[in-house]
Amino acid sequence: MNLLRNITKVLAAVIVSLIAMINPIHAQEELGVYEHLDDTLSGDLIFTDELYNRVNLKEAINKPTIISLVYYECPGICSPLLNGLAEALEKADITMGKDYQVFTISFNQVEKPPLALKKKNTYAKLLSHGDTDNGWHFFTGDSANIFKLLDEVGFKVKKEGTQFIHPGTLIVLSPKGKITRYLYGSAYFLPFDIKMAVAEAAQGRSGPTITKMLNYCFSYDPAGKKYVFNMTKISGTIILLIAFIFLASLTLKGRKSKKTDQI
After folding, report:
1. How many Å apart are CA 87 and CA 189, to the nearest integer?
2. Across the strands, what pairs with 68?
């Protein structure tokens, strides 16, 4: 039993170290997504679409709406995220413009409608069905409206030079502008998840988030200015899991040995 206690102490120390490694405390801790499920967008958010139309977002949301927050000249996860979204929408058994719409919104205030239109033309080609002209809009805006929108949906970013550190997620809203679902990912979304999120939004029902793997598995590389897969965190998680299994096994064996001695 003394051996078991010593091993337990060592494992406990290892686990504490791994937790510190996986969840480092640093100045960028506030970055990420802070879900605001069931909150409703305010009625004074004004953005400019790819055709220079000034649009009140709340008034434009008249059906389930998927919001993707990106910036168009992002060198990291924004393009893979939009590619993944387009691929999932192409496979999903729902129709853009009829069952839902998509708002892709740049949080970089220096980006303007010509760039938004260029992006729209790129991604519209990836869909073979639905009304992409009226169902998928690409917006730009000023800093005041951008900051207010990010705050209302709980999307935290940080500017580093001309680039941004930011998470990757889709935000689904009901026809009344209520936040009903967050879908995390950087390059792949399940068509079924998209379809279910749209169906729930149509009914005004919010759903819990199943996974937040993006915030956990990816880190920002300031030198490369892109998100990279963080093997240290994943390895740490695996080691932590093995440690727990080993500890549980030792505890179980200890209890069985004690019962045998008593007999």
Report:
1. 8
2. 104, 170
Report the alpha-carbon distance of residue 174 to residue 181 in Å, rounded.
Answer: 9
| 14-73: pLDDT as tens digits | 444 444 344 433 434 578 899 999 999 999 999 999 999 999 999 999 999 999 999 999
Q: What is the CATH number of domain 32-229?
A: 3.40.30.10
pTM of the model: 0.72
What mean pLDDT comes out for the span 199-228?
62
Q: Where are the domains of the chain?
A: 2-25+234-262, 32-229
Give the other-Cβ count within 10 Å of 95's Cβ: 13
